[in-house]
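A reminder before we start the practical. When you read a complex entry, don't treat the lines as separate problems. The point of joint prediction is that each chain is placed relative to the others, so the output describes one connected object in space. Small molecules and nucleic acid strands, if listed, are placed in the same frame. In the example below there are two entries. Take a minute to note the order of the lines before looking further.
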Amino acid sequence: MHIPSLLAGLSLLIVAIGALHFPAKNSPLPGEPEQHLNEYLGSKGCYGCHPSEFSSWKSSYHSSMTRLATEIDWQTEESPPLPFEANFHDYPVSIRLEEGKLRYRGPRLQTLGQLFINHSIPLNQHALNFDIATVDQDVVLITGSHHYLAFWINGESHEELRLFPFVYLLKEKIWLKRAEAFLQPPDALETIPRWNANCIQCHALAGQPQQREGYENGLFWESYDTEVAEFGITCEACHGPSKEHASSMRSPFQRLAARHQEARHPGTVNPQELSAARSTAICGQCHSYFSPRSPDEWWTSGHRFGFEPGDDLGATRQILKPHETSLREGEVQAPLESLFWQDGSIRVGGREYNGIIQSPCYSKGENSIGCLSCHSMHHSDPNDQLKEDLSEKSMCQQCHQAPNSVAHQLHQQESPGDNCLACHMPKTTFALSKGIRAHQISSPVTENISNASEPPQACVLCHLDQETSFFDEALGNHNKQPGFEESASTPLGIYWALSGNAAIRALLADAMGSPEVASINSTEALKQTLDILATQDEYAAVQRIAARSLKQLENSSATPTNKRHRKALSSKLSKKRMESWHQQRDRRPITISE
Amino acid sequence: MPSSSSSDEKFFLRLGWLALLFFSASGVLLELFLAYKQPFYVDASSSTRRELLRLAHSHGGALALCCLAWAFTLPRLKATPGNHPWTYRFARYGLSWGSLLIPTGFALGAWGAENNDPGLGILLTPAGAFLFLLGLAGATTAVWKQK
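Here is the predicted structure of the whole assembly.
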């Protein structure tokens, strides 16, 4: 045997295998937005030089906020139970697994969405009596991965995605009508949202709706040629387009030289090297309530060309304020009075940018704080992404000295109230069916607390069953102002939980399920309150939160408060009195959705 | 000792040194891919490809050393009545084809790697491994039968 013959034989084998090799390519599903990286590198490209940052990002929920349905294994323990079948306004809808692919069967969602708009159908109307064609389609995209999953199905027009009307709650492991996952009045108008027009702005990198519309033969038409660079909140959402950076840094000599340069990451943005305001603006791209400054541009190229990390957010987005007068009709889905509390702070959770920019800690020039003062994208637990070396207690101590007396914090050390955030960032924003810490850092109202229901005061959020006199005494407030009529003998938290507006009711009902709150309140009083909310409230979200808290209380091993207080309380809290508070509740409609 | 022993020795010396040169050079190439951060080698989606190319490089180098070891062993073997020609034949074909097919399979598997699975070419690797084991069996028997 000779070497040439051996190599010739081997070459023949290689050619034969090459000829047999047909790489399997996944063809895109109908409606799947096109992915074009253009000047973006793509997260997979970042891995080569930044493997640990890639891994920490990959384990965060940001990375999986939008996924192709075909990329998910639907047969794991965490997956929703399938098939799921339900009725939506009396139309049967279902999601099932067929040969590993997720399929939707039900009325054509675009037609249904149009019908909702044309006929102003409220959430609580059951039968619609319209004939709508039944379709059987692939589920294309999934949004969410932390709290719930939302399912997107191809609409009628090109690359348009419509939302399946039920979501799957990952923690509770239940399917729920989407409208009930948010705070909405029962007679709010039903909608079938489009991914291309809503979610794309935050759930994808460089999303461009590319909407086209017009009239043909007197009929209105619209279509989408939606493009994204990547699905999910990926590396370049915070670091900016980095293809050029990667190209220049492929050379080892260039990388070596960059070690000694001031700008160590040419062509890309490191948020930690930006001012607090500019790095916070990066988070504000998504964590803010805004309306685009140029709606026409938004409907075509999104914010693709208007904003890059490091830029001023205000150039492309009008950050909403409580009394914004320049908004045009329909620019913001919910009325502004739903979005803000009476004191002007944001009521919607997940929109922390609106809160932090109003905080004194943010506006103090060079020493201002920003998101990265407490959060870290690469060195943190995926839940809340708080810096791993910081505790809730030590966050404020980065700038402020620890209070060394009970006089400031009014709580004993190691008690649940021994925590700056409990009073200065109380859970007064609402999202994901729970209270979330306000990011408008503030001090609690100390005077006339019985008139300060909006937002609920930090003291009341915990001491739900206490009367005005308790707070006045604790706060050293001896110049009492007149409160509402019943305040003198009324547990404020319980009163507001029943008589406040829907947002207050939802937040206080959520607070009542907390073990810390249960340990300092009369659980009987809390249970009575929650029972009324769970059975009599007209907001489905309030009912559900109250039922959840009730269950948590029943499973809780909280030590009851002192007997005398409970006895005094029970004499004041008759069921009839509590129900009358609920009857007198603030009925102004509140909508807090996405 | 079979008459073809000297030609086998020459063959395995050439094959061993050639393979050692080739697979050592491939190591330098892989280093360059890494140094210049070539996307097809360093990206997150390239991990299977990267692993297979590394396996090709390391197996190719190690198996080249095996070929050289057989080449250096051959002159020490004496023809004995109990030493059947099949042992040499097994060693010749098994070691040579095995040494080439195993790394080639890894390299071809890297070429078509997708979704954490190697390309079709990886099929050469188990075939090569089987041949190489036969070759080792032949070589071991030949050495064992020596008196």
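Discuss with your neighbour: Residues 83 and 145 of chain B are 6 Å apart (CA to CA). What might explain this?
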